[in-house]
Write a structure and sequence with these properties.
single chain, about 375 residues, alpha/beta, eight-stranded mixed beta sheet, 10 helices, about 20% strand, globular
Length: about 375
């Protein structure tokens, strides 16, 4: 990260950064390209205190976000990026809420703390400004002004998995597998409710992990899909055994067990859902990697690429559809450097990302399964 970033940040906290496209008047059919958008980043940089892990993450996110805005400016995006250093105490945040520049913003990204997000959502509900929760899921109380959540809740991740799997395999029989823990049983109920809303066949019984094996067998004639609600490492082994002799059947692991364990096991039948995918051989990824390295004299972290993906998505959405973009966006998927973005209304009255990847793990690489 280094000194260079923090010198830059100290300057940015005093001045807004103008990132202006040069070709905004070339296409008369894109009237909103001519508009300048004010974007605020309200994030805990902690520029005046001890720099911890969170401030490092936030600074990486900021650098990626800024590069995304610059990238969009090549195609005509006109925007002003404002930075507000939000400390955790309420007094400093109240100063931001009363800052004269905040009222000028078309879109506000952050904060990240729960209490501050509640205050900001109340503020944006009264001003009708767009609020983005960049690094956590936030359940907004003010449904009249939905919050954009790039990080989905557990329930939305489950729904995203089920939407994709049931659409691709409508004729399979679906089983829900869990363990006896409260967390697994709660998630199993969520999965089951979501499956019942789909036009698919549900297995006649739930599958419970017990002594390393599933409590029931999958019916022999079924083309089966087992969806796990358990983070227990034994669940993948148990699902693999249950599906061993079923050629077109497979299992879906819990979305929090996508990382490889130290003692790697090859699960030929198990798909691992995840929010991230980083393909270093992709041309866009290579371009971002080069830009970041030139700008920061180092390699980008996960959060730098997340910031880049989010700002690119927001900038092009604003440039194409204006501030009402959440109501006008088609149901297409934006494939970013690391994130897959599919924004849709969620059950809590907000706008959330339903984008999800599926992997198969091998000893030396991951295979992306579409």
């Amino acid at each position: 990260m280094g000194i260079k970033k923090f010198k830059l940040l100290s300057f940015l906290l005093l001045l807004s950064v103008s990132v202006l496209g040069q070709n905004g008047n070339e296409d008369s059919t894109k009237a909103n390209v001519l508009k300048e958008y004010n974007i605020a980043l309200v994030l805990p940089f902690n520029s005046e205190g001890v720099r911890g892990k969170l401030s490092e993450v936030i600074l990486d996110y900021y650098v990626g976000f800024k590069l995304g805005v610059k990238h969009a400016s090549i195609d005509g995006f006109r925007g002003n990026l404002y930075v507000f250093d939000h400390l955790k105490d309420s007094a400093s945040f109240d100063q931001i809420l009363h800052h004269s520049d905040l009222a000028k913003m078309d879109i506000i990204v952050g904060p990240v703390y729960e209490k501050a997000l509640k205050k900001m959502s109340h503020y944006c509900d009264s001003t009708r400004q767009i609020l983005v929760s960049p690094l956590r899921y936030f359940k907004n109380e003010y449904n009249s002004n939905p919050v954009i959540n790039f990080f989905p809740s557990d329930e939305i991740q489950v729904q995203s998995v089920i939407d994709k799997i049931t659409e691709k395999h409508p004729n399979h029989t679906f089983y829900v597998a869990g363990d006896i823990s409260n967390e697994s049983q709660k998630l199993a109920r969520i999965i089951t409710r979501a499956l019942r809303l789909k036009d698919v066949t549900l297995g006649k019984h739930a599958l419970i992990l017990n002594n390393g094996a599933l409590s029931r067998e999958v019916q022999q004639n079924d083309s089966a899909i087992i969806i796990s609600s358990s983070t227990n490492q034994g669940m993948q082994i148990a699902m693999e055994r249950a599906l061993k002799n079923k050629d077109i059947s497979f299992g879906i692991a819990h979305f929090n067990v996508h990382k490889k364990t130290k003692e790697f096991k090859l699960f030929e039948k198990i798909l691992f859902p995840d929010l991230y995918h980083y393909n270093r051989t992709d041309s866009s990824s290579k371009q971002f990697f080069r830009k970041f390295k030139i700008d920061q004299l180092g390699s980008p972290s996960k959060y730098a690429s997340i910031g880049y993906d989010q700002s690119t998505y927001l900038a092009y959405s604003l440039m194409t559809y204006g501030v009402d973009f959440t109501n006008l966006l088609p149901g297409g998927i934006y494939q970013g450097i690391r994130n897959r973005v599919l924004l849709k209304p969620d059950p809590n009255g907000n706008i959330s990302n339903y984008g999800m990847f599926f992997y198969k793990h091998y000893s030396d690489y991951n295979e992306l399964v579409e």
